[in-house]
Amino acid sequence: MQITAAVFRDDTLHPKIEKLTLSGPGAGEVLVRIVATGVCHTDMKCGSAGSPVPRPVVLGHEGAGVVQAVGAGVTKVAPGDHVVLTFGSCGHCRSCQEAEPAYCWHQFPLTFACTRADGSSYLHDAEGAAVHGDFFSQSSFASHAIARERNVVKVRKDAPLELLGPLGCGIQTGAGAILNDFKMKPGQSLAVFGVGALGLSAVMAARIAGASKIVVVDRHASRLSLAMELGADEAIAAGSAPVTEDVLNAVPGGVDFALDTTGVLPVMRQAMDVLAPRGNCGFVTSPWNGAELSISVRHLLLGRKVRGIIEGNSNPDVFIPQLVDFYMDGRFPFDRLVKFYDFADLAKAFHDSEEGLTVKPVLRAAA
Ligand SMILES: [Zn+2]
Ligand SMILES: [Zn+2]
């Protein structure tokens, strides 16, 4: 079939809108008509120089849509189902077997190889040349996407589908860090470094968990004020100097949990430094270049822990419907983060996100 997709042929983050031929769904695959798709920072990282993602490629990994057809062997969803597309996982490794698919041992190829397991492509351009798809097992910057059975999550039909795509990555990453990984309890405290989509989702989730105090740190005043509206207690404007002392003044003795969403090494160091004894620090993103972080061993010795958290340690079939329920109950108003863009305005959505003008751009699908 013919589809419309944003094809990244270089590193400029200005994709070309092209007509492609899509073949599928193959065995174990699900064809989804995309209704809308979120724009995540990882799309920008992967569309820029230095990324491991091959070209030409269709990016996009926060798709939401309606199942059109299923391939052989698929039983989880049927045509007409509303689905959110999330990250892929193998289903067989030890992490998958223990219901922690975000730590799938095959996560890197499933996310970034951008071909089927046998190396073939299901997308071809007007000249018949292969175009990489399968980014995050979905490539959702398109009118239609091929997902795999494991990364489609069925959602309730009374929820606004065009809003739900970001639950598949950015929103579940922030909220899941708090609810799935930290397992935050009432009365505990949290510092969030960087309140974009991930950090703001963490703030809303900490409110649901009953946090006693939530401190937020960011460079953008608009994001700090949105964080306060969504439940933060204290906002600290980040500048050129570390804010460690400011956080410790807000929460004497340090916080139970610190979440870094920036991937900026000096900021990550501050997130570790504000922990109370036995506190936990989580990192949700990292630089591509393998940069290392220094840490005070003496500081860690007092029961403090530091850990990487992918996709909020979400088991998506359980967690995404739960987040939808929280939203429908009015307890998780992530629509406050979202601004809709036309499909042709993807480059502008990237720009607005990078400039801090929009927290979570969502593209309405191409016709
Ligand atoms: Zn696995
Ligand atoms: Zn993402």
Arithmetic mean pLDDT? 96
Distance between termini? 14 Å
| Dominant shape | globular
Main sheet specs: 7 strands, mixed
CATH class wording of the largest domain? Alpha Beta
Q: Identify every distinct bound molecule in the structure, by name, code or SMILES.
A: zinc ion
Q: Rg, please?
A: 20 Å
Structural class: alpha/beta
In CATH terms, the superfamily of the largest domain is Medium-chain alcohol dehydrogenases, catalytic domain
CATH architecture tag of the largest domain: Alpha-Beta Complex
Report the count of strand segments: 17
Q: What is the name of the CATH topology of the largest domain?
A: Quinone Oxidoreductase, Chain A, domain 1
Total count of domains:
2
Order of helices and strands: EEEHEEHHEEEEHHEHEHEHEHEHEHEHE
Q: What amount of the residues lies in strands?
A: 15-25%
